[in-house]
Amino acid sequence: KQEVTQIPAALSVPEGENLVLNCSFTDSAIYNLQWFRQDPGKGLTSLLLIQSSQREQTSGRLNASLDKSSGRSTLYIAASQPGDSATYLCAVGNNNNDMRFGAGTRLTVKP
Amino acid sequence: GAVVSQHPSWVICKSGTSVKIECRSLDFQATTMFWYRQFPKQSLMLMATSNEGSKATYEQGVEKDKFLINHASLTLSTLTVTSAHPEDSSFYICSAPRMNTEAFFGQGTRLTVV
Question: What letter does residue B64 receive in the DSSP assignment?
Fold first, then answer.
């Protein structure tokens, strides 16, 4: 059974810092990996989707990498802003497109 | 714009009543949809896989008689929480894969049972 782990569970940084969120998964036979943002009491906002054949995806200040063989992904956020404060979820998809989620990293960016 | 629509976004119901949540794929057909549940301060857990024209498959520990799933058309799946109790209060969210590429998520439904 696929297990997804996210480290750290919580992170607090001053505005402007670059930061890295980590995600690891136990079964490397994945279809894709997706990073989401979830604000308190809200739904999911898709940030980046990496297909299993890809190594990384970039969108604005966000860069996600995937190392399928080692079961790892990282989300890099450049020049963090207070508006980036949220919980970031990593989810691994299999070929049926159901997804297994990590517990999330709760990010606080202080002004 | 949203490609998967979920309704309602929030609902409050009395203990013992049933609540139906709808999940629609807006511009594509989805033979499979997924239902997830998220308890406060926890991550999303897959509850069941909704299959168009056949029975849903449930994850271990999820009561199929309590969480009724109907996938009567290629664009609509419904989740009915029967005889709801306060412990069923949670955030329920559906997803639908489009052409086996990316899974799109609904907006979620926050259920509060009082």
Answer: T
Amino acid at site B105: F
Alpha-carbon gap, residue A44 to B12, rounded angstroms: 21
Q: Which residues of B touch A95 (CB under 8 A)?
A: 100
CA distance A26 to A38: 24
Residue the block writes with tokens 């001053």: A14
Do residues B110 and B9 lie in contact, with contact meaning Cβ atoms separated by under 8 Å? Answer: yes
Model confidence pLDDT, tens digit, residues A38-84? 998 888 999 999 999 999 999 999 999 999 999 999 999 999 999 99
Which of A42, A93, A103 has the CB atom closest to B103's CB atom? A93
Report chain A residues whose CB lies below 8 A from the CB of B97.
97
Length of chain A: 111
Handedness of CA B94, B6, B10, A10 (dihedral sign): positive
| Distance between CA atoms of residues B43 and A87, nearest Å | 10
* Each residue's pLDDT tens digit, B65-89: 999 999 989 999 999 999 999 999 9
Dihedral angle at the C-alpha atoms of B77, B81, B87, B92, nearest 10 degrees? 20
| Parts of chain B with a pLDDT under 70 | 1-2, 100
